[in-house]
Input
Amino acid sequence: MDFGDALVRLKDGSKMTRAYWPEGVYITLQFGYPEGIPINANTAQATELPQGTVCIFDQYFMECTPEGHFRPWEPKAVDVLAADWQWVSDANRAAPAPEGLAPLGAYVDAKMSSNPVVIGHNFEADGNMAWPINQLSANPVMGDYKE
Output
């Protein structure tokens, strides 16, 4: 299966792996928290925001490591061009993406929260994503949903 087919299954909540990855390693799509979620103590410490601050988290790919740990995952060209993707399971399938959630790589509507804090992206005034970042954007300017 190629990455395009794997992506369709990921968007549907399935777990996917590559033929050469170790046993137990897979990726899945974390749908994020488009309406925001109160941050815990670890996130508060990392962002220097008060614990309990409601933050919007974008969707991202999540990898399960051989040790059973979870971390963000980004495909490399070799992953995107590979034809050895395999379906792991949808027995523990994630709930479908919440209604109104922008597809992977799309933009979210700022009306979801009166004072959203977006972690992971920086937006230009016209609503287009300027570049992905790995730091907090406390006052992003977001536009309407776009593909």
User: Anything to note?
Assistant: The longest helix spans residues 3-11. The first strand starts at residue 15 and ends at 18. The beta strands are 15-18, 26-30, 33-38, 54-57, 60-64, 70-73, 85-89, 118-123, 129-137.
